[in-house]
Amino acid sequence: MPIYQSPYPGIKHNHKQEVSAMNSNQAHIPPGMLERIIQDKQYKTACYEVLQRMTADRQNTEMIGRILEDERRHLNDFTRLYYNLFGGQPSLLSNVAPQIASFTEGIQYLFAGEIDTYNFYSNIFFTDPNTEVQDVFRRAVLDENMHSTQLNHVFINSSLSL
Q1: Residue 5's pLDDT is what?
Q2: For a tag site, which of 29, 81, 103, 138 has the least CB within 10 Å?
Q3: What pLDDT, on the 0 to 100 scale, is given for residue 161?
Q4: Does residue 7 form part of some domain?
């Protein structure tokens, strides 16, 4: 698995520009951006599934399992939000099969992803006036922050057991 690269290249700063060009009484998040968020969530969910199978430690398995539940809930929340805002279903990824060479590599990749996602979701939460968008992204921001903390714990726990 390569070093983590943001699935949102060039979007972090552009979101504010796109917001200012739109009507203030509607959601400002563009459909394509929300679709990329959903696809990224699909991929990260698959990564967590692989990572959970890679660990033999019960505590790590449980913690990754809790993160995985959150990721699945966010995937459902974002998909429902897409439908509510745009009246259709987003394009989903097919055959998601992440290649994670080692447990440590997977943790490092997902940790970097949680930090990047936290920053990106925070931007949307604070700039989009739509209350449904704010509610969905507020929950996601809080969970992404918690996930980075939990992954740090898993990393330390797995490092100590080597």
Answers
A1: 64
A2: 138
A3: 64
A4: no
Domain ranges, residue 133: 30-160
What would the two tokens of residue 103 be? 């447990």
Residue 1: pLDDT band with limits 50, 70, 90? low
> Into how many domains does the chain fold?
1
117, part of any domain: yes
Q: Give domain status of residue 111, yes or no.
A: yes
pLDDT in tens, 83-122: 999 999 999 888 888 889 999 999 999 999 999 999 999 9
Residue 48: is its pLDDT beyond 50? yes
Output the DSSP codes for 10-40: TTTTHHHHHHHTS-TTS--S-HHHHHHHHHH
Q: Can you give the CATH number for the domain in which 88 is found?
A: 1.20.1260.10
Residue 11 is assigned to a structural domain of this protein = no
d(CA 30, CA 22): 10
Pick left, alpha or beta for residue 37 (phi over 0 → left; psi -120 to 50 → alpha; otherwise beta).
Answer: alpha
